[in-house]
Amino acid sequence: MVLLQVQDLSVTLQTAHGPQEVISHINFSMNAGEKLGIVGESGCGKSITALALMSLLPPDSKINGKVILEGLDIATLNSREICSIRGNRIGIIFQEPMTALNPVKQIGAQVSESIYLHTKLNQKQALERVIELMDKVGLPVNRFPLNLYPHQLSGGQRQRVMIAMAIACNPDILIADEPTTALDVTVQEQILNLIRDLADSTGMALVMISHDLGVIAQTAENVMVMYTGNVVEMGSTVDVFQNMQHPYTHGLFSAIPHVGSSAQPGKKRLTSIPGQVPELHLRPNGCNFANRCPRASNICREKEPMATRVSDHHQVWCYHPLNREDKK
Amino acid sequence: MKHPLVKIEGVYKDYQLPKKYLFQKAPVFRALHGITLELNKGTSFGIVGESGCGKSTLARIVMALDKPTSGKVFFDGRDLFNMPARDLRHLRRNFQMVFQDPYGSLNPRKNILGIVAEPLDTLKEKLSFAQKKERVGQILAEVGLNSSDTDKFPHEFSGGQRQRIAIARALITRPALIVADESVSALDVSVQAQVLNLMMDLQEKYNLTYMFISHDLSVVEYVTDQIAVIYMGQIVEQGTTKVLFQNPIHPYTQTLLRAVPDVNPLNRKKKNKDIIPLFEKTKESCPFLDRCTRATKTCVKNAPELLGEEGHLVACFNAD
């Protein structure tokens, strides 16, 4: 059953260089309980996509296209209607828990905020619910009393509070926007396990946004690779990661050092993608990746590529997708 | 016998914490707990550990920005903390640092010439403006920027380019040692690869020694020859990169390596269900006691020393 459908979503933001389209023509749909990963470098529009799903974009931005949550177009709702969805049916975890949490409010009060807002629980029931939530995210109240302030917790513990806030109202969709980027690897593992387990046990759909290919590989079933506001490749994680078609996806994979590199003898070099992500107002015509792409031809610089089907659940936006021989 | 470029001998660093009561003796936080290391010329040494383990404190001490509470640091055979301030300043040209955040480490009000030439000014090199400009231009070309960029300001550059400027600033004094404290962790993967390749090329060209501090194990594995894993201010395992990654012995190193997410979606990690034995941690116990799955009674009573065969040292009683 389709839970969320994003149709032809484009977002235009007001910048110093005039209005700029930061994401263009994004299409995807999610079923209940599905785990979708969005991966890309900074400036590729992955966070803007998340904010668009939450209707949290700045008021002077323009949204085209539809974001349909079970038949209801979120993009057209007024602020009161969207409030009943935000935090209730869609929860979000932000990257930096220290700036996302209110430093002068006790953690219990922050977790209970959305419970009071969206449910009709009385104080006693709400308290019970908060205690249950804190237990779920691994901060049992006997060791972490609800009257603690965010600064008394470590980074991982703060992120757990964020998770408790996001899932307080049993949302249908949980958006995790780089939830582990600020954390150590061992804590990252715990948080990822926690998010995955919560999604599995409650049947929430999960949107995992990260620049880390490893994080996406470990959490998502389907993945969307984004570059400068466009989706360049989309499909099941196994298909995309094992049989990548777009030169950008391939470039990303070659650019990361893999654990185990010390086993190979000799001096190694990473294959980097030449150049850098173009700034918003300097995005080229045609395919945005063309000027960094080793396979680009004239048509790439003139016309934006359309989606090409690779297999049932695998699409790529490229005129010159990779063949099997190119990958090794 | 090879002469190490940097020799760190039994370095302790205590920081005083604020007092809770007026007449209390100030409580002390021990950031480094007897670190002994040797960095050989022309090699890269990786320092790995979680945040708060003392990695950056160690970098500050090697850079002589902070004095150790006890212990010594030798640079090219000379004791950094037992020499006249004047000599130390002269010696400083030989070790430079590249910081983590390329947005915070470059002064936004200075142009690139001013930023990159600042070490020369501080070292009181007597250069004319034209000479200075030429030298900055040369070094910019070497890190892959335009030598005509000298009049631009940091905001005109992207993150990766800024980090190149920071590297140029470190290189301008022709140092022997560069301490890179999380230098690539703020960069995007495609740009990170460019900067790492640049750093490795420069190392080959100038026979640089790197002290490479990072929490990203795959990056450290890629660039370093030797690694020390630090936990709570102590080295728990040390060895060549190859040995350490293929055959990690200390449970902490194993935990760290296991926690790196695999990019192969078919290799989904199973949840770690190891049981951690419950012991009361005392001052004498092994620092890793409360997270260790192999802890025994011995670990409670005293902390293990860093022992082992040549090239691979481990601080664990239950190493197998």
Task: Sum up the structure in keywords.
heterodimer; A: 328 residues; alpha/beta; eight-stranded mixed beta sheet; four-stranded antiparallel beta sheet; 11 helices; globular; B: 320 residues; Rossmann fold; seven-stranded mixed beta sheet; 10 helices; 31% helix
Spatial strand arrangement across the major sheet of chain A: 6-7-8-3-9-10-12-11
Secondary-structure element series of chain B: EEEHEEHEHHHEHEHEEHHHE
**Overall outline of chain A:** globular
Distance from first to last alpha carbon of chain A: 39 Å
Provide structural commentary.
Chain A is of the alpha/beta class and 328 residues long. Chain A has a domain at 248-259 and 268-328. Helix content of chain A is 31%, strand content 24%. In chain A, strands 6-7-8-3-9-10-12-11 form an eight-stranded mixed beta sheet, sandwiched between helices. In chain A, strands 2-1-4-5 form a four-stranded antiparallel beta sheet, with helices on one face. In chain A, helix 4 runs parallel beside helix 6 (155-166) and helix 5 (123-136) packs across helix 6 (155-166). The longest helix of chain A has 18 residues, at 185-202. Chain B is α/β, with parallel strands linked by helices and 320 residues long. Chain B folds into two domains: 6-247, Rossmann fold, CATH 3.40.50; 251-320, no CATH class. Chain B is built from ten helices and eleven strands. In chain B, strands 6-7-8-3-9-10-11 form a seven-stranded mixed beta sheet, sandwiched between helices. In chain B, strands 2-1-4-5 form a four-stranded antiparallel beta sheet, with helices on one face. In chain B, strand 4 (70-75) and strand 5 (78-79) form a beta hairpin. Chain B is globular, with a radius of gyration of 21 Å. Chains A and B meet through helix 7, helix 8, helix 9 and helix 10 of A and helix 6, helix 7, helix 8 and helix 9 of B.
